[in-house]
Amino acid sequence: MRIAITANGPGEFAGWVRPLTAALRARDPSAEIHVLCVPDDFATGGEAAYIERTVPGVHAYPPSAYLRLALGRPVEGLPARVDRVQYLGGDLAHAVRVHARLGGEATTYKFSRKAYAATFARAFAVDEANRAQLEAWKTPPERIRVIGNLAIDGALGEASGAYGDAPSDAARDGIVLFPGSRRHEIANLLPMFVRVALNLRRMLPGVPIAFAGSPFVDDGELRDALARGGDNPLAYGAAAQFDGGEIVADGARFPLVRAAMGAASRARLAIAIPGTKVIELAALGVPTVVCTPFNAPELVVIGGPMQYVGKLPAIGPLVKRAAVLAVASRFRFFAQPNIDADRELDPEIAGTLLPSQVAHVAAERWADAAWCRATGAELRARYAHHAGAAERMAAFLLESPRP
C-alpha cells in the first residue's frame, strides 16, 4: 500500500500527521507513507524533517518538491503512482493536484468543497457537527465516516512518551505557557508571554513555571525573538535571552520544554493562545487561560487574500487590522472547548491585553485548586471518546481501494 498525504503547518503535523502516520506504521510496517508539505503561510519550513524524525520510516518532502510534482516534474523518492492521497491540511486544491498526478483514491479529513464532492471517495469527520458540514459541502452521506479528532491522539501520545520524548517535571503542579509555534507567533507573542511569566513569578514565587517550546522552531529563532522583545509592540519591554534550554529575563529563569504535552500533563494550569493546543490540553485534563490579544491585529497571519492585502504599503495594515477585528467580533468564544460546550469552561480574555492582566487571571485560577480539578475532569471527559481516532482512520486507509 502506498499512501501520499498532503499537509501544511506545525499544528497539522503535530496534531494530525504525527498520530496518523504512527498508527499506519504500527498497523502495517510495509506500507509506504509519503508526506508532501504544501506551500502555506502558516508553515515553518521544518515540517518535513520533523515528521521523518518523529515517525521513522515515513518519507517527507518540502514544499519545493510538491511544486515540482504539481508542475509535472519527477520528484526523487516519490513513486509515480500511489494507492491513496489523503488530505491533512493546507489548501484542498493541493491534495486534488497530487491526486491528479499520482492517481489512487482521494480522501479528506474535516474539510471539503462542493467542487470536490465527486473527487473524494471518502471524507473522515471529527464529529457529528463536522459530518453536517461535510454534507453541506455536498459530500454524499455514505462516503462520510466519523472517526474523531486526530489531535487528541497526538496529545495523548506525546504526553505518554509514545514518540520517544522523555517525561518532564518542569511544570509539575505549576503553570505552562504556550505562546504558539508559528513564526509570527514566536516573533510577536513570545516576548509578551515572557512578561506574563515574570508577573507570575512575582505573584506565585514558589510555583513552577515553564514554556512550551515548539519542535518546529530552532534555537536561533528563539534567541532573535527574545532579544527583540523590548522593541515588540506586544512585549511591553520584555527582552530576554535563551541560555541552556531556559528563557532568562530580569534574573529569572524559565525552562523551555520541547515535548510540551509531557510537561503539561503534570501541570495544574496552562496559558495559551487559541488553536489546536487548547483542545489537546483539554484532552489531558489541563484547564487553560486562553488569550486572544488584539494589540496588533495587523500582525496576525490569516488565510486568503487579506494576508496579501495587509502587505500593501501604508494602507494595507490598516485594512487588515479592520478586517481581523470585524471577523473576531462575530465570535462568542475563541477556544474550541468553549465552542463545543457552548459555555466558558476555559477562561478566555480577549482584546488589547496587558501581561499583568493575563498573569492576574492565571494566578487566580491556579490558586483555586478545586476549580482546576473539576474543570480538568470535565474537559478530559468531553474529549475521551475521540481517543483512537488515528487507529480508526488508519484501518480505513489500509483497506484495499475501490476498483
From TrEMBL:
Keyword Nucleotide-binding among UniProt keywords: no
Q: What is the lineage of its organism?
A: Bacteria, Bacillati, Vulcanimicrobiota, Vulcanimicrobiia, Vulcanimicrobiales
Which of UniProt's keywords are assigned here? Answer: Glycosyltransferase, Lipid A biosynthesis, Lipid biosynthesis, Lipid metabolism, Transferase
The UniProt entry, under PANTHER family, shows:
LIPID-A-DISACCHARIDE SYNTHASE (PTHR30372), LIPID-A-DISACCHARIDE SYNTHASE, MITOCHONDRIAL-RELATED (PTHR30372:SF4)
Q: What is its EC number?
A: 2.4.1.182
Q: Which GO terms describe its cellular component?
A: membrane
Q: What is this protein called?
A: Lipid-A-disaccharide synthase
- GO BP, one annotated term: lipid A biosynthetic process
**Is DNA repair one of the keywords?**
no
State the protein's purpose.
Condensation of UDP-2,3-diacylglucosamine and 2,3-diacylglucosamine-1-phosphate to form lipid A disaccharide, a precursor of lipid A, a phosphorylated glycolipid that anchors the lipopolysaccharide to the outer membrane of the cell.
InterPro entries per UniProt: Glyco_trans_19
Q: Extract the GO molecular function terms from the UniProt entry.
A: lipid-A-disaccharide synthase activity; phospholipid binding
Q: Which reaction does it catalyse?
A: a lipid X + a UDP-2-N,3-O-bis[(3R)-3-hydroxyacyl]-alpha-D-glucosamine = a lipid A disaccharide + UDP + H(+)
